[in-house]
Amino acid sequence: MAQTIKKFKIPTTDLPPVSSVTEGYSLRYRIISSDRNRTSHWSPVYLILPDYTFVPETIDVSKQGDVANIVWDAVTVNKIYQGITSFIGKAAEYDIWLRWDRNDGGDWLYKERLQTTSLSLPIPLTYTVGGVVQGLAPDKLSVEIYLKGFPVERADGAVGTPFLKVYRQLNVTV
To answer: Are 76 and 54 in contact (CB under 8 A)?
Structure first.
């Protein structure tokens, strides 16, 4: 009996989040017979490195009353293959990191994962520095926006890291 080899493609919409540690997709597979009675062992884990480029546009942080508003343009995701750039899509989810302070090095805190390109925040009455609550209201806001990744983590600010950081706005007066 002749065996036929079947190929399949995984749509980019079905891929898991990019690993923020390895900057790629961890992939393993197993083969299942057509009658689904037999399966192979799982393959080793392979790292697939995407040749993605992220094209951010603009970000705006403003204050209206006691509310800070953050608005940014959706990030375009392109793939470069053999010198040809192909449009993959627009990013749909973002991880937001905030730092409230008074020029004294407030703590970076993870806010949330959003499926939108805007966020309104009430300006807090206190903020933390080194985990210690400060008695004054902050007058500065810094924002870093990352594409969805796993695990959710913020870079230390080193040049070229991380792969998923798309927007950074520092020390905006609020």
So the answer is: yes
Q: What is the largest CA-CA distance in the chain?
A: 78
Ordered by where they begin, the domains of the chain are 55-173 (2.60.40.10)
2-12 pLDDT, tens digit per residue, is 567 777 788 77
pTM surpassing 0.85? no
Phi, psi of 13 (to 5 degrees): -70, -20
CB 12 within 8 A of CB 88: yes
Q: How many CB atoms sit inside 10 A of residue 17's CB?
A: 16
Q: Which of 110, 109, 170 has its CA nearest to residue 141?
A: 170
Alpha carbon distance 117, 115 (integer Å): 7
